[in-house]
Structure formats: C-alpha cells, structure tokens
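TICKET: design request
STATUS: open
ATTACHED STRUCTURE:
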C-alpha cells in the first residue's frame, strides 16, 4: 500500500475542532454559510435526486447531509475519527442517512472504482501533500459521464490577504493556522491536474465574501475561493 496522502497535523487540527462542526456560530460558520450556495451550484449541474454521491474529505458531514436531503445516496469519507463520529451522531439526530467511512481517497478509488454519479471534494486539496493524487482518485471513483466538483483557494496576494490575514487574523472567522498559503492552488494548476486525471473541466465559479454585508455570493471572481465542475468522458 502506498504512503498515506495526508498531513497528520492537518487531521489533528480538524479533529480537535470536530465537536464544534455543527455549531453555526463556531469556527465552521463559513462552511455553514457557503454550503447552500455550493449545494445549489452542484445540484444545478448534476441533479442529485437518485444519484450515488461521494463526498471526499467530508469532515462533520455538512455538505454530505445536505446532498442526501436532495435525494442522493451519499457516502462521506475522511481520515479524522472524531469528525466522522460527529457526522454519524448528527445523522442520527437529523434522521438523514449517510454512509461514513474512514478511508483515504486513493484506497476508496481502488475499492469502489466507477461507482459514483457525482464526486465532491471541497476545501480539501489545499490540506494534503499531493492534491494531484486526490484528483486522480476522484476521477477513478466517478462513473463515465459522471460529475466531479472541487473547491479550493487561489494562490496570489489577494487570496493571502483575504483568506489568511483577513479571515484568520482580522475578522477571526477561522482559527489561526487553518490555511497554509504555500498549499493554495491556482486555477491553472488545478486545471492541469484535472486534465492529467482524464477529466474534462466545464465550469469555474468564484465564491466571494463581503465583510461589510457579511454575505457570501457566487460570481466570476476566482481570485480567492473558487469551485470547478468536471466530467469523466464516456
């Protein structure tokens, strides 16, 4: 088996916060606030009802549960025991059924290749040592003709100012140290990794936060947070 494509410090960091995952006023408030925007964008491009879906790096299950509510059969995978326990417990409380597994994306791709209509991997690529390996695993998990969605952070001065200085230090929306700027990924780099994995990139969308109105919006500005939609050719 290959070396695990994960940073133990990153897993530990999110594990320590796991009990706060479903608190909408906690460090995960931004995830709660952007989730409806992401969910609708995914659902518009790949209607979720009746689909087999996997959320890679699912954490406490915010996106996974919301996709299940849209009628999808959802699997969530992560490497944090604590986050997965929180996700399981919340599913019991909410009555929303999601299958959670502690498994690496690459191992899941070997075990269940070509089994999913939709693969999502949000805010994870910038937390792993080898993002290209995760992208290849996602490409392997999706069925021919299926959809793959990624979100990450651009690497430029504005992204550093907004996502690190602004969000972590000035506005204190996120815990200090949440992001490592060196691991941010430009759209050109992500596009190349997507092509190398055999996927076709169809759309890219920016996600912006207005600190004055405290409102997130989807737009064409990919300079900080951005999402991409891809398909696996038939």
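STATUS: resolved
RESOLUTION: sequence designed for all positions
ATTACHED SEQUENCE:
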């Amino acid at each position: 088996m290959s070396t695990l494509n994960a940073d133990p410090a990153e897993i530990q960091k999110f594990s320590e916060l796991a009990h706060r995952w479903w608190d909408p006023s906690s460090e995960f408030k931004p995830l709660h606030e952007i989730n409806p925007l992401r969910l609708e964008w995914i659902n518009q491009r790949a209607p979720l009802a009746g689909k087999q879906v996997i959320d890679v790096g699912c954490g406490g299950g915010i996106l996974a549960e919301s996709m299940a509510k849209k009628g999808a059969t959802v699997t969530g995978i992560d490497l944090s025991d604590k986050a997965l326990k929180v996700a399981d417990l919340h599913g019991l409380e909410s009555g929303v059924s999601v299958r959670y597994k502690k498994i690496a994306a690459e191992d899941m791709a070997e075990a269940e290749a070509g089994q999913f209509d939709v693969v999502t991997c949000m805010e994870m690529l910038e937390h792993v040592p080898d993002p290209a390996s995760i992208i290849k695993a996602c490409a392997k998990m999706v069925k021919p003709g299926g959809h793959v969605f990624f979100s990450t952070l651009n690497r430029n001065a504005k992204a550093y100012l907004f996502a690190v200085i602004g969000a972590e230090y000035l506005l204190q929306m996120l815990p200090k140290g949440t992001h490592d700027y060196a691991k941010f990924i430009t759209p050109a780099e992500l596009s190349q990794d997507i092509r190398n994995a055999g996927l076709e990139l169809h759309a890219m969308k920016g996600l912006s936060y207005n600190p004055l109105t405290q409102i997130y919006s989807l737009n064409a500005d990919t300079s900080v947070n951005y999402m991409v939609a891809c398909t696996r050719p038939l």
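CLOSING REMARK: The chain has one domain: 8-231. The chain has a mean pLDDT of 91.
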